[in-house]
Amino acid sequence: VQVVESGGGLVQPGGSLRLSCAASGFAFRSYAMSWYRQAPGKERELVASISNAGGITNYADSVKGRFTISRNNAMTTVWLQMNSLKPEDTAMYYCAKGRGIIPAHGWDYWGQGTQVTVSS
Fold first, then answer.
1. Minimal CA–CA distance to 53: which of 80, 71, 27, 77?
2. Band of the pLDDT at 48, cuts 50, 70, 90?
3. 88, 91, 65: which is closest to 9 by C-alpha?
């Protein structure tokens, strides 16, 4: 199992970034996927999740209306579109593989992460 994140960087407040997670080594279309983040000194936080076919998505209250999770099973890729970014969104962002088809089954593999820094 491998999940590799990309797309992080430095962006000004109010800006946008699109994170990508390329997955391999498992039947991607059979598992939910998610994005977590962890800021220095804070616990890892579930930001967004998506069911195996994309029909169920969930978001942390702190990102609702600003972030969008999506996936393409043929490309075995999941994305996190982040708009209206705030300094408090600064964190390492991780992609995670689900234990089953829906987010409620939990997560079992995480990537190495991609850093997002929101600063002027």
1. 71
2. very high
3. 91
